[in-house]
User: Fold these one by one.
Assistant:
Number 1:
Amino acid sequence: MRAEIISVGTELLLGQIVDTNAAYLAQRLAEIGVDVHFKQTVGDNATRVEEALRLAMSRADVVLMTGGLGPTEDDLTVAAVAATLGLELVYDETVADHIRRFFETRGRVPSSTVYKQALVPRGAHVIPNDRGTAPGVHIEHRGRTIFIMPGVPYEMKGMMENYVLPALRDRTGLTVIRSRVLRITGEGESAIEERIKDLLQQTEPTIAPYAKLGEVHLRLTAKGAPEEVDAALARGEAQVRERLGDLVYGIDEQTLEEVVAQALIAKNLTLAVAESCTGGLISYRLTNIPGSSTYFLEGVVAYSNEAKIRDVGVDPTLIATHGAVSAEVAEAMAGAIRRRSGAAVGLGVTGIAGPAGGNPDKPVGLVYLALAGAGGTMHRRLTFGAEAGRQGIRVLAAQAGLNLLRLHLTRA
Amino acid sequence: MRAEIISVGTELLLGQIVDTNAAYLAQRLAEIGVDVHFKQTVGDNATRVEEALRLAMSRADVVLMTGGLGPTEDDLTVAAVAATLGLELVYDETVADHIRRFFETRGRVPSSTVYKQALVPRGAHVIPNDRGTAPGVHIEHRGRTIFIMPGVPYEMKGMMENYVLPALRDRTGLTVIRSRVLRITGEGESAIEERIKDLLQQTEPTIAPYAKLGEVHLRLTAKGAPEEVDAALARGEAQVRERLGDLVYGIDEQTLEEVVAQALIAKNLTLAVAESCTGGLISYRLTNIPGSSTYFLEGVVAYSNEAKIRDVGVDPTLIATHGAVSAEVAEAMAGAIRRRSGAAVGLGVTGIAGPAGGNPDKPVGLVYLALAGAGGTMHRRLTFGAEAGRQGIRVLAAQAGLNLLRLHLTRA
C-alpha cells in the first residue's frame, strides 16, 4: 500500500510554521508498513489543492490531507476535494450537533461561519473530532482512499490514532517497520562509510548514514513480521559493531554524555573538568544528565593563563615553556583539577578555537585533551579544520573530550 | 517570479526528521517577494526526483532543491537532475581541490567516494560550500533556474545567504525588500505581543513575531525603493522600542552574549561566573565570543554543595540555613567568585532544574540569580514552569543570567 501526504496551508509556503504534521504522519505510516513516495505542500487555493489531489490519486492508494478545515474563508480543503471528485456537499446534522454541544459545554456562542464545518461530501464518512469542532473526512473513491484531517496537530493526531491508523492497519496485515539508530563518534563520516560501504547496499535491515557535527548516526530499518524484523535489526547491529567496534557509542536516543555518566556510575568514579577552549561546554553537557551531582564534582572554565595558574593550579613555568596550548599544559590541567577536587578522573582541554591566535606551528583548530586517573596521565592531540569556525571547533573539541572519557572508562 | 521547493531525502518520507529546511527557504523567499505555490518532498530515488523536477519546472521559474548531495550511494540528486535535463556530469577540478584541502587541513584522508561530489552537470555553476565538502549547483536551463543545495541546514543556509538570495534579489528588480530583526528578552511571548498588538497589524514595515526559547524575535520587513524601505524600518524600530524599552537587547544577528561582551569591553570591566544549575552554559555562551579572555576571568561549575563551599568559597552555614537554592547562596556565590578572581563583576546562579529535587516551597524551575559588583550585591528570584523540562529550565536560567548582566551593565 502506498500513501501520499498533502499539507494544505499558505502559512507553510511562507515558512511561518514548520510542517511537523507531515513528519508525524510519515513516521506513523512507516511504522505500519505503508510506503510514502511523495509529500506535497500547497497553499489555501482551490485550484492548487485540486492539482495536488489529482496528482496524488494518480500514484498513491491512500491520500492523507491536513489543513484548511477551519471556519474561515481561507479554509477550503473539503470543498476543493469535493469539487475535484464531483461530489456534492451536504449538511451533516450529526456534525452540526457536535459543534453546537462543543460551544455549549464551553459556555461560548459559535459564529455562524462555524457551521460551514458541517458541510461534508455526499457519501463520505465523518471522522469524529474529540478535540475541536472541524470533523475529519474519509472518502472512498474509485479505488482510492482519502483522509482529510485538521491542521491543528493535537486534533489531527487524535484522528490519526483513533481512526486513520486503525483503518489502515486493518488493510496492511501483520507487517511492521522498525528502526534502530547506532550512534558513532571518533572518525569522520566518509571514513566510517568507507568501512561499511557494502553494508549500505543491503536490505533487511537497510542501513542509512546521517552525518551530524562530530558524530554519525546509522539508521537500521527492517520490515516484515515482528520477529523477523527484530532478528534483522540484531543482525545488522552485529555487522556494524564488528566493523566499527567501539566507534559505536550508543543506540537510539542515547547521548554521549549519558554513556559517560553511566560508565562513571557503574564504576563508582567521580570526575572534574578543567576547560579552556571549550569554555564550559563539557561541564554543561555532563550536567544535562539528571543526578549528575553524584559523579560530577567540579568544572572550571580557565580561559586565561592567569585562571589556569590561579584557579586550576597549573605551574606557570609550563605555560611559559610550552605555551598554553600544549600537551604539557593539558596534562597539568587534568592532573591539577583531579588533585584539587579529589575526583577519580580529571579531564583537561586546551586549544585554539580561533579565529585569531593561530600560527603555523599551532594552527586554529589545534586541541590537546588530557586525562588524569589513578593509572597516570595521558593526552591526545587533535586538529580540526579552521573552516569549522570557532563554534564548530569548540563543539568538536567537547565531543572529542567526552569520547576520550568514554573510551578511557569503558576500556579500562 | 515564482519558486518551487523540492526536498529530497527518504528520511523525510519516513518522518525521521522534520523538514525545517523547507520552512527556512519559504520564509527567505517570501522576504524578497518570491512566491511559492508548491513544495514537494521525494525520497532518494532517481525516478521520483526526476518526476518532481519536471513538475516543478512546468509551473515555476525557479526550483530550489535540498538534500542528497553527500558522498554516499543514496546521494543521487545531482545525477538525477543532470539526467532529467540531459546534461552530462563532468569532473570539476576546483571542487576536487576544495575537497582535498578540506581533508588536508583536518589531517584526514578522504575516502574515494568523496570525490563523487566533484561531479557537476556540464555548464552548471558551482555554488561554493564554505562549511562542508558538497558543492551546490546552479543551472540555467530553458528559461528555468535550478539551485541544488545540501540537506545539512548549516551548509544550505550558507549557500542561500551568500549565493542564492543575492542572485534572486538581482532579478526581482529595483524594489528591495529589507528586514531587520529586533531581539527581545525578559518577558514571555504573549505579554510582548499584547504590548505591540496593534503594530502587528500594520504594513511598511510588517512586524512578525517569532518565539524562541527565552526570547522573541520581531522581524520588521519593508518593500519598495531603498530609501523608503530604510525609513520604514527605522520608523518601525522606533515604534517597537518606544513600547518595549530595554526588553529589546539586540538587532539582527546580535546575540545576548555579544551585547554583554560589548558592554563589559566598553566599561573596561571583567567578569567571573559561578554556576550551579546552568552547569557551565553561561560560561560557554560568554566564551563563544572571540577575544573573550580579555573580560572573562573565570568560570566555576559548582554543582554539588561541596564544590560550592570548596571551589567557590560559599560559607557552609549559609547552605545549611537557607538551602543551596536560595537568595543567600546565590549572592554568596556571586560575591565569592568575584573576590576570588578579582573580577569587577561576579555572577552566581543556583536553581532546581529537575526532574527531581523540587518540593512545594522550592519547586522545579525555581532559580536564583545574583550579581556582585563594586556597588554591592543583588539577586533575582525567577520561576520557570516545570513543563520546560530540565534542559529548557537550564537554557532559560542561563538566558536570564546573561540578561541580568546586560541590564546591570547598560543601566548602571
Note: Chain A has three domains: 2-172, 176-251, 256-411.
Number 2:
Amino acid sequence: MGMVGGGLDAFIGAVHRRAATMDHEIELVCGAFSANPEKSKATGHSLYLPPDRVYDTFEEMIRREKELPEGERMDFVSIVTPNHLHFPPAKLALENGFHVVCDKPMTINLEEAKALAKIVEETGLLFCLTHNYTGYPMVKEARAMIKAGKLGEIRKVIVEYPQGWLATMTDTSGNKQADWRTDPSRSGAAGCMGDIGTHAENLAEYITGLKITEMCADLTTYVPGRQLDDDGNVLLHFENGAKGVLHASQIANGEENDFNIRIYGELGGLQWFQMEPNTLIYKTNEAGARRIRTGVGELSPESKAATRIPAGHPEGFLEAFANIYHNFALTLRARMNGEQVDPIYLDFPGIEEGIRGLAFIETCIASNDSTEKWTKFKE
Amino acid sequence: MGMVGGGLDAFIGAVHRRAATMDHEIELVCGAFSANPEKSKATGHSLYLPPDRVYDTFEEMIRREKELPEGERMDFVSIVTPNHLHFPPAKLALENGFHVVCDKPMTINLEEAKALAKIVEETGLLFCLTHNYTGYPMVKEARAMIKAGKLGEIRKVIVEYPQGWLATMTDTSGNKQADWRTDPSRSGAAGCMGDIGTHAENLAEYITGLKITEMCADLTTYVPGRQLDDDGNVLLHFENGAKGVLHASQIANGEENDFNIRIYGELGGLQWFQMEPNTLIYKTNEAGARRIRTGVGELSPESKAATRIPAGHPEGFLEAFANIYHNFALTLRARMNGEQVDPIYLDFPGIEEGIRGLAFIETCIASNDSTEKWTKFKE
Amino acid sequence: MGMVGGGLDAFIGAVHRRAATMDHEIELVCGAFSANPEKSKATGHSLYLPPDRVYDTFEEMIRREKELPEGERMDFVSIVTPNHLHFPPAKLALENGFHVVCDKPMTINLEEAKALAKIVEETGLLFCLTHNYTGYPMVKEARAMIKAGKLGEIRKVIVEYPQGWLATMTDTSGNKQADWRTDPSRSGAAGCMGDIGTHAENLAEYITGLKITEMCADLTTYVPGRQLDDDGNVLLHFENGAKGVLHASQIANGEENDFNIRIYGELGGLQWFQMEPNTLIYKTNEAGARRIRTGVGELSPESKAATRIPAGHPEGFLEAFANIYHNFALTLRARMNGEQVDPIYLDFPGIEEGIRGLAFIETCIASNDSTEKWTKFKE
Amino acid sequence: MGMVGGGLDAFIGAVHRRAATMDHEIELVCGAFSANPEKSKATGHSLYLPPDRVYDTFEEMIRREKELPEGERMDFVSIVTPNHLHFPPAKLALENGFHVVCDKPMTINLEEAKALAKIVEETGLLFCLTHNYTGYPMVKEARAMIKAGKLGEIRKVIVEYPQGWLATMTDTSGNKQADWRTDPSRSGAAGCMGDIGTHAENLAEYITGLKITEMCADLTTYVPGRQLDDDGNVLLHFENGAKGVLHASQIANGEENDFNIRIYGELGGLQWFQMEPNTLIYKTNEAGARRIRTGVGELSPESKAATRIPAGHPEGFLEAFANIYHNFALTLRARMNGEQVDPIYLDFPGIEEGIRGLAFIETCIASNDSTEKWTKFKE
C-alpha cells in the first residue's frame, strides 16, 4: 500500500494506517503524505519507511512505484486527503494500473464521481471507498437480518448523526480537521451533510438494501461566519414506499459521534448505536427487545467474518475500519492469485456508493434551495 | 371530582382516577362513566360511589350535581371520553359553573377548541388539559434549565414518539383503545399525530418555551384498511429560528411508548426519555454528560415540587399524571379559599395548549396535503 | 385501614397511604399518626379524616375502633413506625381482632418476631409485611421464571443494595429518617443490614425460592460517631448448594437506591435493577440478552396481575408498594366475604418473611463478631 | 519482537500481535509459535516472516537470535503460552539479554514468580506483564482521579468479573482455550481465580493504589468433572482499612466478559465497565452522576496518552492492550537510545504485579481451605 495524504497531524491518515495493517495482510511500503515535502519526509521517517519510498507528490509516487518490479512496488494506493484531492490521485493511480482505496465522500462533486466511475470501469481495477461504519459486525448483522426477511417489508428508517464539535467558531480555530471541512473549495458543496450526512445515507441504504428516491432537506448554518451547512434535517422516501428521517449535525452541543439508526418493518425493528457498536437491538411487539451481541450465539457469516476476538472484548472504530481494508485485501489477493474470492469479502463499499454519496449531497443542496416539498434523488 | 367517561374497561379513566386521588387532595364523588347506563352503574359500584351519584349521562350529572348544596356537590368535572366527546360535556360543565379537567386533544377540531376557549374566558373558570408528560419532574427541570439560560439560544429540537402497538390490524381488532383512536368520527382528522403527535408538539413547546411557526409534514397510513395516519415525520421551524424534527409512529414495531426529546442550544444539550423518566441528561462539549436525577442535588423548585419520594425510588407515569392534578387542585383550592396560589402550581396545561394541539393537527394535515415545503402553523 | 405512625414529616407513612389507596380498594378511616397528639391531629386534618377518628395513641385507636360497629370500624391496622414500635401495636391489634400490615423489619429482634408469629398463629388473622420490592412486576416475573425452571438449578446469586445518603454525619444531622435508623434503641441491632440488608435477603430468597443456610459477614461503621453498621459485605450459602454475595451500604457515595440482583443458573441468568424496575434482563450463553419488559408479550400471571397500565408507561416504587397492599386487600376481602381467594393474591410477604429478616440481622451480627468463616443462619 | 507461543488457532497470540503492532513501533521479526514445528512454520508463513526466523523451540529462537547482529536481532521476547510455559522462556530470554513481555498470570506459582523477580532484578532488563485492562483510558482516568484525591479516602471496592463460557463441560469440549485453562498442570492451582480473578485483583489495586492485606475466599467448582474452581467470591480488606468484594465466575451463564469495578470514597464514587470501556461514571451525593468519556473535556495526561482517536469513535480491547505495548515500547526505546522516558510511559504492569497475582491465587486457595474467616495476603 502507498498512501496519499495522512501527514503526521492528520486524523484519518493514522486511522487508515492502523486499519490497513491490523490483520497483517497489508504493509505500508510508500507514501506521499503531504503537500509539504518536509512533512511527508518526517511522516515517512516516523513510520520507518525507507527514505526513497517517501515521495514529495502523489504524481512522483505513482510514476516511480510503477518503475519498480512487480512484487516490490505498491499494489494499491490509499487516498486520505481532503475531498478536493481525491479525484486527481485516484485517476492517476488507476490509469497507471494501481488499485485504489479512497476516503469518502469520493470526490468533490457528482460530475467528478461519474468521471471516476468511468475510469474504474475502463481499467477494470478495484476501487474501495472507506464508508467505514459498514464495517461493524452488528451493522452487517442488521443487513443480514433484513435480507433474511426478519423485519418483513421495511416501513420506516430513522438515521441520525449528531456531533457537537463545531458548535462554535472558536472551538475550531486552528483545528486542521475543522478547517478544511468547513471550506467549500476543499470540502465541496456541503459541510455537515457531506462529511457525515453521507455516512448516514450510506448506512441507511446499506442496511436496508433500499435506495432513497426523494428527499426534503432543511439545511442550516448555525455558526455565524461559517460558509457551509453545519446541520441538516431531511425527510426521506425510499424505493419500496418506506419513509424516513435523516438528520445530522455538527452543532449538537455535547454530542461526540453518536451515529445511530433505527429501522422498522412489518415484523420488527432494529436499533444500532455507533458508540456502543457491539450491540444490535432487535425488537418485536411480541417478544420485546433482544440484544444481539458481537460474537454471541447464532450470527450471520458476514458478522462473524468481521469479528476478531471473543464476545465481551469490545471491538471498536479501528476494527470496523480494518474490516473494510480486510475485505478489500482478501478480494485483491484472490484476484492477484487468480482465485475465486469468498463472496463475503466482496462486501466493501465502492464506486456505486461513492456516486450515491455525491448525489445525496447535491440533492440535499437542491432540495434545501427549493420551495417544493419533494426533490428527486438525482444520480 | 365528577368523572365523564372512564368505564371499567377504559385505560385512561383509571389513570385519571389514580392520578387525581394520589395526593389525597381530590375525591371522586360522582360520575357518568359510560354511554351505557349499566356500565356506568357497575363502574360506580366498583368504586364504592353511592348509587345516587352515578349518572346515566353527563347532562344528568351536571344538572343534578348543580342542585346539590355547595360543599357537597362536585367541584369540577374530569372528562376522559374519546375526543369527539370532550367538547359537549366541557361546555355544559363550564356553563353550569363547574371547573373542568379534560383529556387531550382538547376537542375534535380547531374550531371547537376556539369555541371552548371563548367559554372558558367568559366563565372565568379553571380549565386543565392533561398533557400529562409535562408532569414529570425531569421535564420540569429541563424547562427550568432552559429558562435559566443553561443551554443558551436553542438551535435544534428532536422530539420522537414511537409506538408499535398498531403495527397490524389484527393486533388491534376488538381492542377498544385502538378502535376509537383509528376512527375519524371519534378521533378527529388525525390518528397518530392527534393521539401522540400532539404530546410531542406540546412537550417541545413546553420545555423550550418556543412556539412552532411552520412545518413540513409527511404522514402515512401503513396498515391497509386503516382510515387515519399511523405514522408521521415532520420538519419544524420555531419562532427564534431554531429548527427541529418531530416524528411519531404507531407502527414502530417493538416500541412501547418511547417518547423522548433532545434539545441543543449554543451552550449545551439535554435529553429526556419517558421510559426512564427520572433521568435528564445534560451534555456539553466541555464536560461531557451529566445525569441529572429526580431528587438528587440542586434542582429547580418546579422539579422538587413534582417529586414525592427520595431519589432512587422511581416515580413513574401515574405520579407524573398526578402532578397535573396536584397543581390543578392546589390552584383550585387557593381560588376557592380566596388565597394567592404559589406560581409553581399554576404550571399545568390549559386552553392555550389545547388550541395549539388542534392547530398542530390541522397544520399536519394541511402540510401533508400540500406540495409546498413549508406550511405556516395555523392557530 | 387505621394507621399507626406516619405523621406529616414521615417518609414511609405517606408511601403507605398512597400505596394503600391506589387501587380504590382501601380507605384510610382513622389513625394514631404520632406520639405527639398535636402532630397526629394535624396529620389527620390534612388527610380530611373526621377529628374523632384521629387518636392520640395506638392503644386508644384500637380500643375505640373496636367499639364501633362492624362495617364502620377499621378492618386492619397499618403500622409504619420506627422498628421498636412495630411489635406493641401489632400485638394489641391482633389481640383485638384486627388484621395487621406492618413495615419491615418486623420487630426489633428475633425473639419479638417469634412472639408475634405465635400471636398471629393463635388469632388466625392476616399479617402482611411490606417487603415492598417484591411487589414489582419484573421481580414476580423473575420468580415465576425460576419456578418454571428457565434457569435450571440455581448456582450463584449476587444481591446488592448500595445507598450513599449516610456517607457523612453532617448529611444527616437533623434528618428524621437518618436519626432513628442509626439509633440502636429504635432500629435494632443492625443499621444498614437491618434497614436495607433485610430487603436484599428477602429479595434473594423470594426470587430464587431458596433459603440462605450460612453466612460470612463483614460489617463496618465507616462514619465516626455512628453507633450502627453503615455497610456490610456478606458471603452466602443457600440450601441447594448455590452460593452468593450480598452487600449493602449507606455510605456508597453517589448511589441513590440502586438495589439490584443477579441470579445465575445452569441454563441462564437474570438481572433486575430497582431503579429501572420495568426491565428484567434474561441472558443465556446461546442467545445473548433479552429484555423482558413489564406488559410486553408473554408474561406470567403473577407479573400481569401486578401491572396497571400499558407497556412503556413506567410504573414505579409506589405502584410496586401498592401491589403488596392490593394483594393483601384482595385476600382480606375474599376472607371477609367467605370466598376463595385467587392464589395469585396470596403472594404478599408475612410472618415467615419477618422472622427470616430478623434472623438475617442476628446472623449478620453473630458472623461479624466471629473469627469462624461460616455462621449458620439461625432462625 | 520475537514471539513464544501464539500459533494460528490461539486467541491471545493474535491479540498480542495486533496490539504490539498497532502503533507501528514494534515489528514481529521472529517466533517459536508452537510446540509443534509444523504449526510454528505455518504461523510464521501466514505472518510473512522469513522462514529462517521461524523456530521450532523458544530455546532455539533465543540462541539463534542472540547470534544475529544487534539491530537485526529481536529486541525483546513476547511470551503468550499457557501459564506453565511462562517461566522457562522468560528466564532464558532474560539470561540471554532479551527484555520480556509476558502474559498473565506471570508464572505457575508464587515460588516461580519470586525466582523470576530475582532474575529480572539481576539482569536489569525490562519486564512487562500484560494485565491489559489497565490499558484502558478510563481505567487510567479513574486511577488519576483517585490519586488526585477526588474520592477522598477509599472505603469500599466492588470488583466483579463474570463470564459464562464455561457453564457446561460440553460448551468447552475441544475448545483449546478452555482446555488448558481448566488443567492444573498447565494453568496452576486456580482456574477461574487465576485466569480472571487475578485481573480483578490487579485492577482493584491499580486503580485504588491500595494493597489487599487479607481475604476470605469461597471458591467453587460447579461443573462436575472439572478439576479447578470455576467461580469464586472473596471478601477483601485493604491496607488503609477499606473493604471490598471481589467475585469472578466462568459459569455466570449469559455473561460475556463483564469485568467491572466500583469504588466508593468519602467524597464520591466511580464505576467502570469493561464492556463499555470509554465511559467512567463519577458519582457524588451532591451532583449525581457524571459520565466521563474518553477524549471529552479535561482529562488526565495518562488518559490522554492512551487515546488514539477522537471522542465517540470507540476504542476497544485491542487498543487497550496496545497501550500496554505502547508504553513498554516507548520505555524500551528511551532506554535503547539512552534517553529519559516520560514517566507516563513507565505505566505498564511488571514483576511486582506478577508477584501479587500469584500471591492472590495462593491466598485464595489457602483461604478457601481454611475455616478461619481471614487469611493474610501472603506475598
Note: Chain D has twelve helices and 14 strands.
